[in-house]
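I had to read the description of the data format several times before I understood it. The format is easy to grasp once an entry is in front of the reader. For illustration, here is how one protein appears when written out as sequence plus structure tokens:
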Amino acid sequence: MNKVYSNADDAIFDIADNATIMLGGFGLCGIPEASISALERKGVKGLTCISNNAGVDDFGLGKLLKTRQISKMMSSYVGENAEFERQLLSGELEVDLIPQGTLATRIQMAGMGIPAFFTPAGYGTEIAQGKEVRVFNGKHYLMEEALYADFAIVKAWKGDRYGNLVFRKTTRNFSSSMARAGSITIAEVEELVEPGKLDPDNIHVPGIYVHRIFSHKQYEKRIERRTVQLAQNR
């Protein structure tokens, strides 16, 4: 099977309105910039997006929020996006805020074929409403269901033509689990190499999980919040 596509627009060709999409990355680190821009160009609407955060204004998923292409966000952190806040408060956007550990584990369980698990996170809060509660060793736990998606889109440092992926540092946090949880997984990589060029011991996602892959060179890699310190006069 040829998994290699020429660009992002070709790789997302069958993503249609009302699709559920996982998008990898941690904050703005390691987000699939090329694929997000391709979704914006395609103009698909009614998307349910599952991501660690909702990007920032005019970058990352913030681009799709601005064009009203997202109808529902499932995230754990959304504090840097004014447009997200506006749409939430006005009722234009459905939002499911999920504790970060729970979000990561729900995705991981989907990739492992485990339909549900129990966690103490969120018990006694609004998050627990409507969820099954059980007691283990005197402690209350919520049942959380695995989280699946029609498409998982991730960005890796390197990949080969078989779809094997290597991530760098925090870009791996959600992406490696998401790549296993999508019905169709699309990977964009900074460097596409021939099979055999990647060290098997350093592959983070085996190619069996990846259906499409393409290389992209021009990444902005924006820093979400830059903190600097003024030099002290000596």
